[in-house]
Design a protein that fits this description.
- The chain crosses the membrane at residues 12-32, 44-64, 179-200.
- It contains 11 helices and 5 strands, in the order αααααααβααβββαβα.
- By secondary structure, the protein is an alpha/beta fold.
- The protein folds into 3 domains: 6-69, no CATH class; 80-151, no CATH class; 179-296, no CATH class.
- The protein has a 5-stranded mixed sheet, sandwiched between helices.
- Helix 5 crosses helix 6.
- The protein is globular.
Length: 317
Amino acid sequence: MLGLNLWDYVFIRTCILVLHSIAPLSIIYSLVSVAVPLPVYPPRFLQVWLALEAIFYLVIYLPLRKYLQRPAKHPALLSRDDRRKLFWRCHNSIHDPIQYLRKWFRGASDADIKRENVKDFFRWAFLNTGDPDLAYEEELEEYATEMERLLGREIEPGRGNAKCFRLTLDKVEMSHRSLTWYLCIFVVDTVASISLMYHSFDFHRISFLGILSVFPFRPLSVFAKSNSQVKKLTYWHRPHTSKTKLPVLFIHGIGVGLYPYINFLADINAEGCQDSSDGQVGIIAIEIMSISSRITLTMTDGPTVQSGNGGLTNSLV
């Protein structure tokens, strides 16, 4: 793991700069090499790789960036009573209303967060839209008034310069990841898979079409014998046989998948194996490809996961 000193910071920023520079340099080289003869050419394999990097940016990344800007699919709008109940559930959980507004408004000052800005936020949060509609004006005024009571002051009328987060309406800010980056992810994923198999985990794969929807490609998915009990969700499983210890359901965070947690999962295994007469601690380690530096399908929705939870939990006991 990287530390917190200056050199570690310089190292990681340099790596980011180099990785982000690969695509533009590849495109420039490809265009120049076609237009004019160069006095010196890099090795053949490097020429091919630079061409692939340029093609990946132009043919894959740019269309994908445009595609991801399409409007989000919102759930059906709740009834007025249900929206009010949801509002009060959220409202009653606010312990610091000043910081609550400032953080939702990207750190804006109180002077820039005016009544119309607050109504914009509530319009997105409870009506799933950014378009004003007089039919909902009374409801939004009610929410704004309750926020004033929580703040202990009136919110200045009008519209300020503040812009709130509207996660399903805002433009998707994307950064290009080069083929070189995805090659690194492929290597990391392969190392993680080998390590998990070494620690007696069994991989549960999704359908063949689902396998093709993940980039970089995962060869292990083709040869795995066990099928996942949840659509679009892969996981690693170690059977639970202990009579005195509880099994573990592990969900990783945003990053590169399970690789950073290999030692943690291995330690659980080691602890579970100390008393052989009691059996081993069962573990299911779920993989969420959409937050693991992959190009893949949308994240599995709640109902789909819930429908498969019974099978997963049965595997643990």
